[in-house]
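Give me the fold.
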Amino acid sequence: MTIILDELLPHQAPMLLLDRLLDYQGNRVCCETRVGERHGLLLDEQGCLPSWVGLELMAQTIAAWAGMRGRERGEPVRIGMLLGSRQYQSQVARFAAGERLVIEAECLLEDNGMASFECRILCGDLRCAEARLSTYLPSDEELQGLLG
């Protein structure tokens, strides 16, 4: 079965930054993207993606995980929130044009919509960025309260 990311994430072009879901198993998810046209608004003059965009790639990978969990439960795609990150470290200043990035996330703790994820971005065999992200997946009622 092919999983279309548009069906898992609330993001739309031009802010859907991932190309595809590679793997999903329980508390782990793995996605990929190739630096290029999809990232148009965020690319520098050389067509490279600044390393700080890695946080958004990690957050969207977590959103894909949440989308798969919702799909398993028969729930619609929901909007989640990135609450913060800890110790974002990148070994590179930018991700090169044309480079294939593999983004992995593992849920370490989940309670009442709050979750903590250990994330990493791989460029080939090199671990080029990592961080721990905290997220919140509000109920529809909570979301309306936050947005309304």
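The CA atoms of residues 63 and 90 lie 21 Å apart.
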